[in-house]
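input
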Amino acid sequence: MNKVRIYRTRSCPYCRRAEILLKKRGVKTMQNIDVGVNKKLWSIMKKESRRDTVPQIFIGEVHVGGFDDLAALDKKGKLEALLNK
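output
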């Protein structure tokens, strides 16, 4: 299974929803990077994702996007394939 990395904040409901969806799809561990109060980590997230919102989700080396993007991938039936690539 591909490594999953999520840039998130503690109070973000979409971050939590992304985590729940990924667990439903069999992801047992993921790297959660809390960017909430860390300007350096937020800057790294922006540079890697070219977005300024959380969550930002990476599966392997692929930038999925935010929760809506993750849910759309799942709805199209493409999330599991990406996770198991």
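quick obs: Helices lie at 13-24, 39-49, 67-75, 79-83.
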